Structure prediction request, 689 residues.
Amino acid sequence: VQDPDPRTLARARLGELDAFEELVRAHQADVFRFTWYLTRDRDLAEEVTQETFLRAFRFIARFRGESKFSSWLMRIARNCAMDALRGRHRDEQHKETAEPSAVTDGGVARAELDAALAAISEDHRQVFLLVEILGLSYQEAADALQVNVGTVKSRMFRARQRLCRALEDDEVQSG
Amino acid sequence: MKCETMQLAASERLDGERLSPDIVASLDTHLEACAQCRAFLNGAAHVRSALRIRPAEDVPDLTASIMRAVQQEPVALRRRARASVRGVAAPMHLRPRHLAPVTAALVLGLILGSAVVGGPWQRPSTAPLAMAAVIRDSQSAAGTVTAYRATYAITERGLSAEVPQRQLTMDVAFRAPEQYRVDISDKTAYPSKAWTPTDLTYVGNGRATYRSGPTGCPGDLPVQECPRTQATVTRTSASSLATSPPSDLVIPLTSLADTPGVRITGTGTVSDRPAVRIEIPYERAEPLFSFTGLGGRWRPFFPSDRVVLWLDQAHWFPLRYTVYPSQDPQRRAWELRFGLPVESSGGWIFDVRATGIDRTAPVGSFAIPRVVQAQPVPLAQLPERLGYAPLTPPLPEGFSLRATLMPPGPGASSPMSILSYTRGLTYLVIAEHPGSGLDGVSGAGPGTEQVRLTNGGIAYYSAATQDHGRTLSIRSSSGETLYLETNLTRERLLAIAGSLPILGQAALPSGTSG
Prediction:
């Protein structure tokens, strides 16, 4: 995840809408992917993506560059997704809304992987998504999740272990 | 325990984290001997490849809805932001003026329209109406501009691997009628002296032009092949009419003359000025980039690259325009052809940003050395001097007319008349010749469109480009040729041509019209 040009960021911090729009264009795909994996619900992920940028706009003047912008944005995205999921849990029982994967080449493995990802703990999944899907470094993921690098390292390892085991089990069962 | 430590290190290394040489050595030794840890590593790699070879999620473009929501944020937030921006005012910065009544009415219209459709970020269905208002008002504003100067900061990305980003400044000056000056100063720190900075000067004064700077250079030639040259060009033939003044740098009349392909996507504040945001493909916005045709080296653009243009809502000056790569799949092949890296549609590649705008008389000189300007000729004398009475359309309201004579072009024996109608930035030039004196610029050709005028005659229309304004050429059955060039709208150009007593003939077999 590339960080924006510091000048664009500076102008966005001053409230220039065109600069903020550049940030939206450059980062919305990553935010959407992250929130889709967290919520497993496309409509909700769209709402959460929008809410993420709205919050980012409100608070961008306070962003001082202590972490990378992408880490800061993902932290907001994570918080928005958690809020949205909590709200939905209050309203209704969580529906299994993971989009069914087409069973084509690689489709079975993908469905297994999605199921395995859904089965690991929230903390592990968040680290795994930031590092494996979005390509953040351990330090960036640590900044995004406000944990230390050691925690990212161990959660990443545990997530990998569980995903590997889940896939092995599936292979054994289907084989 | 040993295996868990090793797998932890393997996981870290897989993620590109830096390990100490000791740990790397122990890990490699352990992996050679331990099947269980190799299985873990294979499993992790399997998970990674399964994730990465899957089709990308269909990611929606939420920009419009996000920006709509941002626009609806409490005014206090926006006001605070605007107040902060004042600090970046440039030397030539002009304080916001009170909106002229006509513009105020338009702005009110936009606001009312926005209220109806749910916000200033318009739905596409409402865009043509609002765009038509912008076109109408910018055309009207162009007629009132008598003097203008502006300074822009230009940032260009992707010229070459050695020079990934360039910084330039551009000064634009205009004084009515028909006096333009563009100075570009290259501020880039180049890696070697083999690079010639793109320092350019252009002066247009009536029918004469002056250009100074390095000659243009194809992108694939080494920098040493682009020596610095100076050129003075005087328009001595009708063919030089095909060099339109860079009027779009003051108000983008040519780029924004028609609604198709152009849409308003919002309003906002740019450099402390209320602004309208417009999206337009590069091929339509080319006249805004006319300075790249003056010489030097510039990166190329793909025709469907997206230009985000912010126009001053009071005067329609371009405050900022930014180019984003288009998502057209064919762009990849084009990038390869130009040796460009893969350019993501999310990141801009060219940015022109006003740092100061002023409507007072420019200080810069419009004099062109060693050029004797063609003297105006009273209209009444033209028949005697030319041997024929040139066609003159009814003078549009507020326009002034200046007639000059040009020496005959190649193959022609008689001079030709050039009639220049101007009003502020708006211009219409009509060149006429009783024979083939205009063959260099008129007639049908690639890119021209055969149109039928209201008088029943046939004419050939060319859309505006970086090099010329909107043009129309007409050839009568008796061989008389007429050439019109303007930054008025296509509709007005065709209406004016249709009012002239000349019946154009088809120059091409049927079926070639556009």
